[in-house]
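Support request, please re-run this one:
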Amino acid sequence: MDDSLFEAATSAARAMARSNSAERARWLRSVADSLDSRTADLVAVANDETHLGEGRLAGEVARTSGQLRLFAEVITEGSYLEAIIDHADPSSVPPKPDLRRMLRPLGPVAVYAASNFPFAFSVAGGDTASALAVGCPVVVKAHPGHPELSRLTAAIVTDALAAAGAPGGAFALVEGYDAGVELVQHPAIRAAAFTGSVAGGRALYDLAAARPAPIPFFGELGSINPVVVTESADKSRGGALAAGLAGSFTLGSGQFCTKPGVVFVPVDSQIERHMVDLELPRTHQLLTESIDSGFHAGVERLLTVPGVDLVTGSAVNGAAVVAASVPAFAAHAEELLTEVFGPLTLLVRYGSEDELVASLDELEGSLTATLHAEPGDETAAVVERLERIAGRLLFAGWPTGVAVVWAQHHGGPWPSTTSQFTSVGATAVRRFLTPIAYQDAPVAVLPAALQEENPLGIPRRVDGVLVL
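Re-run finished. Output below.
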């Protein structure tokens, strides 16, 4: 890659670090408005490349512009800076200096676009928005599954940022496998964000860690998203739960990172019986040839595992439900918990609470975990285990669908992510910030967020007291 791209990003980082929240909020809103104004053009190109459907894609453009506007609100509100002031106290033992701490931007960020959300997790998606929001230039590596859309989106973002007064070099797009490898290794890049497969993410994660100066790598990787259905919930509403499960695991042709991939149900469950009779929703063409071939191979592989039965559907027909007993699950957990990206889910039939709890101990980290229970069910042991392995715990509904709000957490233990941070919601900005403490600093050099009179009017903690 041309080094001038990185030189421009480095220069932009200095200018962006000096910018204020109002300026950056204006940049974000300019991008959001530009995307909204080009929705029809964007959707047409995206549908040609991804086949996800115009309705779904138009909604995703709106989500993407909504994310940009949310981050504009986040930085204007100001608590994201975590500003803290401890005044000097010469009388304490030992004497305390004047200390003022806040978060500052890391510098240029590499963003690796995802295939399954060509807007919300791609060129102008949440990673890009949250990095720009806090003053970090972004270099996006386009996903090969939607190259024309990536170029069109990048052009819109570049023009919108320039029109709003952002410095040159604040945003750039690169393409190709080699560019992706070089990007995470370039010394100008100070952090990276990735959404994709475990194999691809792990390879980049290792490269980031192997640099002479390692950088943070925020990867969202594979996720099984377990669901537990208690015996009483299955008995009272098994039909409705079966229909909800079918809609969730086939949504977007099963290509959501939050797809429920394993569901623990009682032996002889109503859910399984209803699944047999249920007409599974039609699924669209999968995003890429590699995803399609991986899905078919994954279903065929599961059906060769001893003790695994086909409940309904098939890979040929576009969606499938398979099932296994707890003993089969325990004997082949590694194979059965390997993510199959696409419209497939696995039912695990448990015969007792002890079997259920023991099975949950086999699970690795996931973005989500879901519990369907009835009032009066004793679920403490189940909840305790699900809390260990998931970043978001649902007690109703289904995990597909991630609200972009302040309280959202879209992350979880390995292998779902490589860190404890979220890639969705207001606190996603924390990934691209680093703390710095100013000790006995002259007033002239203090950032506005740490100045005594609080000119920004932001929430701060002063001498241990939160001041709003």
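The first strand starts at residue 84 and ends at 86. The chain has two domains: 3-221+417-467, 227-394.
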